[in-house]
Amino acid sequence: MLEFFFGYLSLVIIIFSLLVVLSKNAIHSVLYMLVMFFHVAGIYLLLQAEFLAAVQIIVYAGAILVLFLFAIMLLNLREELSAEQLTDGWPASLAVVAGLLLTLMLSLGGFTTTFNGSWSPEKIKEITFTKALGQALYTGYILPFEVASIILLVAIVGAIVLAKRRLN
Amino acid sequence: MFEFLIRPGSFDLFLNIGIIILKIAVVIGVVMLHVAYATYFERKVIGHIQVRMGPMEVGPHGILQPIADMLKLFFKEDIIPEKADKPVFYFAPIISLMAALSSLAVIPFFDGFVIADINIGLLFILALSSLGSYGLILSGWSSDSKYSFLGGLRSSAQVISYEIAMGMSLVGVMIMAGSLNLTEIVKAQAAYPTGMYAIPQFLGFFVFIIAAIAETNRSPFDLPECESELVAGYFVEYSGMRFALFYAAEYIGMIIMGSLAVTCFLGGWTIPAFITAVLPFLKYVPGIVWFALKLYVIIFFYYWIRATLPRYRYDQLMAIGWKVLIPLSLLNIVITGIIKIMVD
Fold first, then answer.
1. Does B160 contact A at CB distance below 8 Å?
2. CA-CA-CA-CA torsion for B251, B257, B260, B266, nearest 10 degrees?
3. Is B106 in the A-facing interface, judged by CB distances under 8 Å?
4. What's residue A86's pLDDT?
């Protein structure tokens, strides 16, 4: 049953990721990406990470993708792009992607299903995922967590500075 | 060929699926009926506030008006604009309605009655309410009309802004209850001295109620559909059944936000212990009655606000969201956190 769901989710993710890139209508691309985000959330659910699944939808589908839509609508890209091909360098990209795929395939054998550290799957299941994530983030990983938030703050300040400069 | 049905394990599975489908049918049926009569209730309330009678023609005191409206919308011609983006135009109302209906799955209407008792019920509702905004934006874009396009743009900006305030106003409740499961939150409130979180969390409750009005695009924050500037906003090109889907989604959204306020701030299906101590017979009133009563108080409040306040200007709306509600909800989180640490 789990394998079936995983197969379905990954198949849809692959198909819709391709559609995002191949679609010539920018709004349709965003919609394909929305479907893809929901299936990524499904993968998180399969891994018992329900908090990540919900946050995936709230942050990516609910905020970031809506901003994408907003930007596309303001640019008024209603007309489909008529160019046959968007970039010339596609053989090089294809070679890089094929190389990455090959590396992934070769490294698959190295994956094991054990875990490191004190958070065993049974323990996480017992205290529920959200609580486990909170405890891990705010005790063992507090420094990386704070650094990440400062980086985000810098990005926000930077965006405001750039916007203000244009106003003046 | 049906041996698997007789085996005990699989029979249980089928029984469970059957019970879940039955629960879904009951919830959708009851909520749809409430949606139909919420429109009647709204017209009556606003009518009386404005010293009119409201609908009076169909049935005694217009009681059959929603059914007449439903039949009319059902048989109306379905008009699709020539230049509309057809697939997106078809999907937009369905996205809105599905997002609203799915949220009903995690709401505990009374003790033990919830379709899906999941650990992250609160986040699930927030996630689906952000999905619902896609219906608005996409319908506005796909209709190829400047009025609906402006309505769609306004709603996208509005929903993003108020979602933040709404999500953060609920964090105080999460901290106090120590859970994201709505049933657990109600039980934690019943065990709390005041019986409802609206009293210690008055700041969060205030922010939540205002943000919920903006989330459901209701007056005075109904800029995405304000009829005097945008005709009807994002759904101006929709007609017949597709228009009815948007209409239903808006009212279900109101019921969802009301239910969320009831479960997170007003004690859900329970009543405070100090009331039952004085009036012990109230204990025998079933929980669903309390839930519906509290829900209708909230919904009446929505109508009251709509009939009383004029519409905000767009920059005022954004200023309230970003400069008042979000700082207030952050302050609420800090205060709740400090008190929680000191009490523990």
1. yes
2. -100
3. no
4. 65
Closest residue in B to A68 (Cα–Cα): B156
Which element (helix H / strand E) includes A138?
helix A129-138
In which domain, by residue range, is B214 found? 76-343
- Measured between alpha carbons, how far is residue B200 from residues B204, B259, B293 in Å? 9, 19, 22
Residues with Cβ within 8 Å of B86's Cβ and at least 6 positions away in sequence, in order, are B80, B142
Q: What are phi and psi of B89, to 5 degrees?
A: -60, -40
CA proximity to B169, closest of B195, B196, B201: B201
B130 touches chain A (CB under 8 A): yes
Contacts of A73 in chain B (CB under 8 A): 137, 141, 149, 152-153, 156
Torsion sign, CA atoms B104, B109, B111, B112: negative
Asked if B85 has any chain A CB less than 8 Å from its own CB, the reply is yes
Q: What is the pLDDT of residue B1?
A: 40
> Which stretches of chain A sit within 8 Å of chain B by CB?
27-28, 31, 34, 50-51, 53-55, 57-58, 61-63, 66-67, 69-70, 73-74, 78, 128-130
Distance CA B176, CA B341 (A): 11
pLDDT tens track for B170-198: 898 888 888 888 888 888 888 888 778 87
Q: How far is CA B175 from CA B71, B102, B125, B169, B256, in A?
A: 47, 25, 18, 11, 22
User: In chain B, which residue ranges form alpha helices assigned H by DSSP?
Assistant: 3-6, 8-49, 65-75, 86-103, 121-142, 146-169, 171-177, 182-191, 202-215, 227-230, 240-265, 273-278, 287-308, 314-319, 326-343
B99 touches chain A (CB under 8 A): no
